Amino acid sequence: MTDTSDDPEIPIICEACGTETTVPLSDLETQLNRHNETRHDGEEHATVDPALKSQLQDLVAEDLGLLE
């Protein structure tokens, strides 16, 4: 089992169900896959909060020097 005491919480949203939750980063992929498999026959409806996803993309691009 993973120690999640220092694991950041990541918001996930499913507009198809109208649900929002947060999960530890270490469980993110598993939780997204589980939700989409059990609720939407594998179609990707649940996703990381779009605002957070955009911020993360900007930070990664900046870190890689892609914005210079």
From TrEMBL:
Q: Where is the DUF8149 domain?
A: 3-68
InterPro entries in the record: DUF8149 (IPR058462)
Superkingdom per UniProt: Archaea
Name-wise, this protein is DUF8149 domain-containing protein
Which organism is the protein's source?
Halonotius terrestris
